[in-house]
Design brief:
- The chain has 3 helices and 5 strands.
- The protein has 108 residues and is α+β, with helices and mostly antiparallel strands.
- The protein has a 5-stranded mixed β-sheet with strand order 2-1-5-3-4, covered by helices on one side.
- Strand 3 (66-69) and strand 4 (72-74) form a beta hairpin.
């Protein structure tokens, strides 16, 4: 018989339930998708580290990452929810305003 509030054999020792997430990165020449299961409460940064993306994608090493979940910008410290797609964004290679001015100038 289990008494409400009484310690269970698992109390303090059981891991948090696992949730599913995907880490996505679109590199210049290839896209990467890492499907993983992480403990509930894992941060975006923790999920990226757990995915192995840092060791597989050399261009991420030493970078300050710009990230989002399902296309919405978020912090590396935000918690991951079950089913989230964490996206790692590449830095812009051109200033969007400058690129637009150039296109307009070419069209005349």
């Amino acid at each position: 018989m289990h008494l409400h509030g009484a310690p269970t054999p698992c109390m303090g020792e059981c891991a948090a339930p696992l949730i599913q997430a995907v880490v996505a990165y679109a590199g210049v020449s290839r896209a990467y998708l890492f499907e993983l299961r992480v403990p509930a409460g894992t941060t975006v940064e923790g999920a990226i580290a757990a995915s192995g993306a840092y060791s597989v994608i050399a261009e991420l090493a030493g970078q300050t990452l710009d990230v989002g979940i399902f296309g919405r910008s978020c912090s590396l410290q935000d918690p991951v929810r079950d089913g989230d797609r964490i996206e790692i964004y590449r830095p812009l290679t051109a200033d969007p305003k400058l690129a637009r001015r150039r296109r307009v100038a070419v069209k005349g």
